[in-house]
């Protein structure tokens, strides 16, 4: 297996209302958006598992452009993200994450829909696992995936976060920046 070269993962904490979210990025782009109000240990564990040769360095000014876009989204003034993402996963995971990015703002899709989009209709459970492994919450909008019957299903950030994000998109479908 190819060894990942050493790289710096820069991180910052975004505060929005009563939410705190850890963000991390490499020189290639945003690589991690954490769950709401989770400890720094969640980010550390993710870096240790997925980017073990990397050093983790706090760098608030460097992450400001990423934080700004996320804040605009959470304030209901941004619909699309213009930032680069540095996603590393299996080819299947990357295909699922790209399909998630195609779900329009304010809309939802089912796990079956995503399986069909990536032309793997029998892989609904694997799609669910790939969605659960999405390292970049909000930016890769896994919160827009719901059960076949429209019910809210699991979300790494927790169902309250998922509900809040879906409600935000329903309320702010006008006057948004298209990044």
From TrEMBL:
Residue span, Methylated-DNA-[protein]-cysteine S-methyltransferase DNA binding domain: 91-170
Any GO MF annotation of the entry: methyltransferase activity
The entry's keywords: DNA damage, DNA repair, Methyltransferase, Transferase
Xref: SUPFAM superfamilies: Methylated DNA-protein cysteine methyltransferase domain, Methylated DNA-protein cysteine methyltransferase, C-terminal domain
GO process annotations (BP): methylation
Segments forming domain Methylguanine DNA methyltransferase ribonuclease-like: 18-86
InterPro entries (alphabetical): MethylDNA_cys_MeTrfase_AS, MethylDNA_cys_MeTrfase_DNA-bd, MethylDNA_cys_MeTrfase_DNAb, MethylG_MeTrfase_N, MGMT_N_sf, WH-like_DNA-bd_sf
Keyword Ubl conjugation: no
Keyword DNA damage set for record: yes
Reaction equation(s) it catalyzes: a 4-O-methyl-thymidine in DNA + L-cysteinyl-[protein] = a thymidine in DNA + S-methyl-L-cysteinyl-[protein]; a 6-O-methyl-2'-deoxyguanosine in DNA + L-cysteinyl-[protein] = S-methyl-L-cysteinyl-[protein] + a 2'-deoxyguanosine in DNA
NCBIfam families given in the database record: ogt
Protein name as annotated: Cysteine methyltransferase
Origin organism lineage: Bacteria, Bacillati, Bacillota, Bacilli, Bacillales
